[in-house]
Write a structure and sequence with these properties.
The protein is an alpha+beta fold and about 220 residues long. About 15% of the residues lie in helices and about 25% in strands. The chain is globular.
Length: about 220
């Protein structure tokens, strides 16, 4: 078993060690591109290189007079976490209005495009499944959907990358994350209890049950 680390204090902002993995890793081949919940692994959207709000709007036509409502691409409301796969649809609504001079003007209302949330693996007793966070250094968002032997009892989050090159490029980095939504510890416990014949899962179960000394002593 990996050496045990005391859990970080639960806070909206945390400084954590991050590593990277991909579905072609030797220890992930048997699971293909699927996470522990049975869904598909997803790589996060492209970095925006800063985590503050970025205002964007797309007009209907570059040649038309438009009134643009500016929106933030990071202000999307997160939906409650579910083990079922969901599909998000983004719509752009256009309206027309006629002025006194019978001129037709188009007004575009730009709707924030939902960010692509990447998959992450972690110890579910520290970051329960469904925990969604953002890397402050890149602005990318991730959701905890996976776990691994090397992460049990550790303050490390493994970020899914779509290929070996991106995984190697990331390496291991100390990152500040902003937790946007915490997962449900009880939901994680219920899922893991049926798999605790594996020691790394048993350790997570013990911690979720509040039996920290036993979790630390597990070898």
């Amino acid at each position: 078993m990996p050496p045990y680390e005391r859990p970080l204090a639960k806070a909206d902002f945390q400084n954590v060690r991050t590593t990277a993995y991909t579905h072609t890793d030797s220890d992930h081949l048997e699971y293909s591109n699927h996470n522990a919940l049975g869904g598909e692994l997803h790589a996060a959207g492209a970095p925006i290189h800063r985590a503050e709000n970025v205002l964007r709007a797309i007009p209907v036509s570059e040649n038309d007079d438009v009134e643009i409502r500016r929106v933030s691409n990071s202000g999307v409301v997160l939906q409650p976490f579910s083990m079922d796969e969901t599909r998000t649809t983004t719509r752009v609504r256009t309206t027309t209005r006629v002025t006194k001079a019978t001129r037709v003007a188009k007004r575009a209302i730009a709707v924030a495009k939902a960010p692509i949330i990447g998959s992450a693996a972690a110890d579910w007793s520290r970051w329960p499944m469904g925990t969604t966070f953002r890397l402050l250094s890149t602005g990318q968002m991730y959701r905890v959907e996976d776990y691994g032997w090397a992460l049990s009892g550790r303050n490390t989050i493994d970020l899914y990358m779509s290929n070996q090159r991106e995984m190697n490029s990331w390496g291991a980095r100390q990152e500040t994350i902003q937790v946007l939504q915490w997962g449900d510890p009880q939901q994680s416990l219920q899922f893991l209890q049926s798999h605790q014949n594996y020691k790394h899962i048993k350790r997570m179960v013990l911690e979720l049950q509040g039996r920290h000394e036993q979790a630390a002593a597990l070898r």
